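Note to self: keep these together.
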Amino acid sequence: MTAAMVGGGFDPLPIAANAGDSVQITVSAGGRDLVSFMRAVPTTRRPVVIRTDPPPGKRDQPLNARIVVVFSEPVAGATITPSSVQLFRGTTAVAGTASLLQESATAAVFVPSAKLDANTGYRLVISAAVQDLEGDALAADTSVEFRTGTTTVSPATVVTVLPDSTALAVGSQAQLTPVARDTDGTVIVGRLVTWSSDDPAVATVSAVGLVTALAGGVANVRAELDGRSGTAAILVAASLAPVASVEVRPASASVVVGGLVQLTTVLKDAAGNAVRFRSVTWQTSNPAVATVSEAAGGTSVVQGVSTGTATITATSEGKSGAATITLGTVGPYTQISAGNGHTCALTTDASAWCWGSVSPFGTAGELGNGTRLGTPVPGVVAGGLTFSRVSTGGSSCALASGGPAYCWGSNFLGALGSGGSTIYPAAFQLSPIAVAGGRQYSAISVTGDRACALSAGGEAYCWGWNHFGELGVGTPTGPELCATYGEPCSTVPVAVLGGHTFTALAAGDSHTCALTGSGAAYCWGRNDPGTLGDGTLMDRYSPVPVAGGLLFTALTAGGAHTCGLTSDGTAYCWGANDTGELGLGTRVGPQSPCQSPIDSNRGVGNCSTIPVPVSGGFRFSSISAGGAQTCALTLAGAAYCWGSNGTGDSNFAPNSPSAIPGGLTFASLSASGSHACGVTWAGVAFCWGSNNAGQLGDRTTIESNVPVKVAGQR
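Structure:
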């Protein structure tokens, strides 16, 4: 048996032995034996303290860190108390709680009630009141002295285990490595992670992540810190077919400087059968051009550094495969969609590229790059699919060639429509997954936790959140219940009631609207600020006609307002107007107050429950709403916006159309609640507005009130 040595002690491993047997112990380092000795197995074995965190003599202990004690064998939880595990400052006991670490019988934790004092000496005392499961007391009292520094530690927000899967023959071992990150994305070091196996009959794991294979089967080994955990799947078999070949997919990829791309491996044995649960190592031929880091499931994440070419090699059991990474440019773009903190766009080769979602907490996969990493520059969506249309909100969806829909990102409340789990962490889909049902779609629209699409025949289908009846299924109470608190939702596409056929649709935060072939507008969902335009403030659970009899050629839905264009390019809007998103030249009225008749806490102060013309007499060719702002293009391609601060200028929140500075003309544009983007006639993408998550794609997180060119283009 092999055990790791941490802080001068061996973590416990079970060894089959009887009283009177002898056990040889060898300590090795750097491939050299340092000491070897024999020990007889005693008749009675009393527990001892193997190690502590902090170790003896530590001089910079964080002020808010937990204090951990590891014992030589399982101990009785009832004997771990603030009296048996005590912390002293001088002769004064420090208040706190003591207990076994979660899912560990060999480690105890003392949590001080308040932060420790800086630059102060403390003494940890573990007394003989601690007993093992047979009632034997600790062999001797243990005292550990340490000194605090001045820093504090942040709790872990993400824990991963590397490798995340491995295959072992019975009797063999493998070392797992936990990687924990705090809220700033900084790797946490020097903290004791709790390890556990969900099937210790198949594989056990030591207190430092050393896995021992015992019997055939699969065990999931978990590493936990601060309530966050990561897992690794361990396949145990009597014998394992060796890896005979390694293929890296894609075999080649283009990356912009600072961009990310995911590589995956396909491992096969000599008979050509795919093999799993094998360790894969990655290497780059030119780290000055592209770096590579290991990710889950035998994958890697490559990041572009500078212009050039690099070969990325994957090796497993002595066999290798490679991919060529070329650092270059992306574009021209054909379509763009601004989401909630991220942006996606399609290029002329129909590939999808996304950027943004820069956050210390990681993404939910909405960039589709196979990772939870955000980036302020474009990165290609993994999977090699080609798309005809992309739409973004809280997650991202796109229509592939031929019409099948794919989504990626958070599946909270069923937003991906894939029928999968909506509970963290299984809800994160890091690359495109097919929407359930296998239908062909002609249009798709994504919002925060919902999406809707039109079938090839014009039937509307929606999936995701249904709290206000925005799925259009006649009720706000189902058809499923998602998340831990049972929110109404559907995890798969459901047909909108009414028997209508539509040519276009738009999903807002809590409502949905669509156009018939004649241009008649219908809406459904939440209506307390007049979002549905039917002249009332009542929620509607299936499509109702928009009042006024106007016929529209285009329709868009924002957070709590809706806008449309008539055939002559006149813009009309309805719904909330507290930030001027209706473009009337005022934030007052035309109706007030606009509160729900069933809940006085719902609604806004100013709104219109019917379509009203946008001021200024403009003629627009396209229109896009997001959050509380609206943007539109004139017939000449000039961009105008109105409503909330979507331009990045804290002084710019117009209540009538205002020209976006810069003099650019666009072929298309897209607005979200925080930013907007446009594609010029030459296929060049520009974005403006908030940039806190890198959603402008200009390599920064600095907002801009003028359009900035998305990085990586020619």
